[in-house]
Design a protein that fits this description.
Structural class of chain B: alpha/beta
Number of domains of chain A: 2
CATH architecture of the largest domain in chain A: 3-Layer(aba) Sandwich
Distance between the termini of chain B: 34 Å
Mean pLDDT of chain B: 91
Oligomer: heterodimer
Order of helices and strands of chain B: EEEHEEHEHHHHEHEHEEHH
Mean pLDDT of chain A: 89
CATH topology of the largest domain in chain A: Rossmann fold
Number of strands of chain B: 10
Number of helices of chain B: 10
Largest sheet of chain A: 7 strands, mixed
CATH class of the largest domain in chain A: Alpha Beta
Shape of chain A: globular
């Protein structure tokens, strides 16, 4: 910088730099967008396979959703409606900031209504409401490789992926059943994609894992720190790893219902109020608000069809079994 | 009927040159090529193993016997040669997918070093289960009962099944390796120094166990050892190796009682 230091706040704050002025459309330069789109297309063609890309520095720290932002911004166009959720909430600081970045630089509409959005960026949740074939869910990913649980070496793990050699992961599941009676993995439950690649579905709860299977929408998983993108295209086979006689189970909340809307068929989080009392509340805040207005609102109300499998349905088995259940422990 | 036909197995560590094979071997008393400094671990090793037969390979340290074992177990690539297993063709020529399938389902290996054969942070049962899981077993109850059965067969205390393998004694670890090696009823088992590092009474029990299992299951076996008494106990036929070459081959009794090659005579006299 050759200029003298600014002398006043007005000088520092140049109003002409607000909005699109001074920035390329959607913040990223065209070359970066092309790079990210290319990686995304490749990821879609090889479901579950981690595709490397040139992850750029973003105006927030790596690990705070930089991969998700790059994927979202490279997808967004002027006609898109963008929603950002952080662990089910539209209101978290990070979600609000990412939404505002897209709003100011990509000149798009934003929403908190899942059914109104065309692109949804999310951290660690899949919305309760059923996504459709014209929606894209972009998931932020902290750890790209499911195998890192059992081996810290990415080099060896890449060889395992190439050979489809997942026996070490299976032994870890076996050991976990030996020790605990069931698989002791909560979030980041490993899934097989199209019977080929073992994939880390990002730290979504088990509750959301069945939604990945045979969905109508596209899932894009993007990691900024690790510079990897992977994807699950619509109607892909996604199967959580489980033994034939020890079925995959989702979280269960026994008889609890959401304190705000009364739902018993949503993913609940336990919160402690100021009075010290523990309550359960819907994790997906936008759907909870809908339910508060209309308690009959179903997860697929916005669709013409109503037979869509989207995660654990209403009246799930109290043990959390999905599908046929299986022998109890 | 021939189960395994190994032909011209050769392993050269280093760049290798045209003079390697012609300038090394027992007649030169060296395995390092004077031209290019490559080490010829084994060269032109050919033999057959018939169904249910136990073939012993003996020789001093550095004679190339473990290299042969590693090549047969598909743990190392051969520089030259073929190993034809009935029903699978030349397994050394197979692509990685086939290699892995053959290793997982049709071969068993008991390693000299326990760290190569077992993952000590897993339970003993988990180590055996790994072999079953690699071969596609996905029913937890079936895996448990198979592992339990294998522990009983190899005389590892079943109540130690869910303890970490690093808490096992050396003899138990060797037995777990045997259990793992035979888990998928392989056609061929390779034992590399199955008793080294065990005390004498444990050696005897490990050998007894293996001999019983080998007879019951009639599995073709290659046993590599520097210990002539192990080979005498287990093997029907024996190969004697020196400087990477086979110097003598024959029925175990014949080689032990009436060794023809000078080196074999020294070897046997020095031990007995």
């Amino acid at each position: 910088m050759t200029d003298a230091e600014p002398e006043s706040l007005e000088e520092l704050h140049d109003p002409s730099s607000e909005g699109l002025e001074g920035y390329n459309y959607a913040y990223l330069d065209e070359h970066t967008k092309r790079e990210v789109r290319r990686a995304t297309l490749k990821a879609i063609s090889i479901p579950g396979h981690q595709v490397p890309y040139a992850s750029r520095a973003m105006p927030l720290a790596r690990g705070w959703g930089t991969g998700g932002i790059q994927a979202s911004l490279s997808l967004l166009g002027p006609d898109d409606v963008f929603k950002v959720i952080d662990q089910g909430s539209d209101a978290s600081v990070n979600a609000a900031n990412i939404r505002r970045l897209a709003e100011t630089t990509a000149d798009i509409e934003t929403t908190t209504d899942t059914t109104a959005a065309s692109v949804i960026q999310t951290r660690h949740r899949i919305p309760e409401e059923v996504l459709t074939d014209d929606q894209i869910l972009v998931l932020q990913v902290p750890v790209t490789d499911a195998l890192r649980r059992v081996d810290g070496s990415d080099d060896r793990n890449r060889t395992r992926h190439a050979h489809a050699d997942y026996s070490k992961m299976w032994v870890a599941l076996y050991e976990s059943v030996v020790q605990w009676g069931e698989v002791d993995i909560g979030a980041r439950y490993p899934v097989m994609v199209e019977g080929r690649y073992l994939m880390d579905p990002s730290p979504i709860p088990r509750w959301d894992v069945p939604k990945l299977h045979d969905a109508d929408n596209l899932f894009v998983f993007a990691a900024g720190r690790e510079a990897r993108i992977y994807a699950i295209p619509p109607h892909t086979d996604v199967e959580p790893l489980a033994f034939e006689d020890r079925s995959f189970r989702v979280e269960h909340f026994d008889e609890e219902a959401c304190d705000a809307c009364g739902s018993t068929d949503t993913f609940l989080t336990e919160v402690e109020g100021e009075d010290g009392e523990r309550r359960f509340a819907c994790n997906d805040t936008s759907f909870c608000e809908k339910r508060q207005r209309n308690s009959d609102c179903a997860k697929d109300d916005h669709l013409e069809r109503s037979d869509i499998a989207w995660g654990p349905g209403t009246g799930i088995d109290p043990n959390g079994f999905v599908g046929d259940g299986g022998e109890d422990i | 009927m021939t189960f395994l036909d190994a032909d011209g197995l050769t392993k050269v560590y280093g760049e290798g040159c045209s003079a390697c094979l012609a300038t090394t071997g027992p007649e030169y008393d060296r395995n390092r090529c004077p031209e290019c400094d490559s080490v010829v671990a084994c060269a032109d090793v050919s033999f057959e193993v018939r169904d249910g037969e136990v073939l012993g390979i003996v020789g001093e340290s550095g004679s190339g016997k473990s290299s042969v074992a590693e090549i047969l177990a598909l743990d190392a690539d051969a520089t030259a040669g073929t190993a034809t297993i009935r029903g699978h063709g030349d397994v050394l020529d197979a692509d990685y997918q086939r290699r892995r399938e053959i290793r997982d389902e049709h071969l068993g290996m008991v390693h000299q070093h326990v760290h190569d054969g077992l993952n000590l942070s897993f339970t003993g049962g988990g180590n055996v289960a790994e072999k079953l899981l690699s071969a596609g077993w996905r029913h937890y109850g079936d895996i448990r009962s198979r592992v339990r059965g294998l522990f009983e067969e190899t005389e590892v205390p079943v109540d130690r099944m869910d303890d970490s393998a690093e808490t096992y004694s050396g003899g138990m670890q060797r037995r777990v390796q045997i259990a793992k090696a035979i888990a998928n009823d392989p056609g061929l088992v390779v034992l590399d120094e199955p008793t080294t590092g065990l005390d004498v009474s444990v050696q005897a029990r490990v050998l007894d166990t293996f001999r019983r299992l080998q007879r019951e299951q009639d599995v073709a076996t290659v046993v590599v050892s520097h210990d002539l008494s192990v080979v005498r106990l287990l093997a029907d036929r024996v190969l004697v190796m020196r400087q990477g070459r086979i110097v003598e081959a024959g029925l175990t009794d014949r080689v032990m009682e009436d060794p023809h090659h000078e080196y074999t005579q020294t070897l046997i006299n020095s031990i007995i």
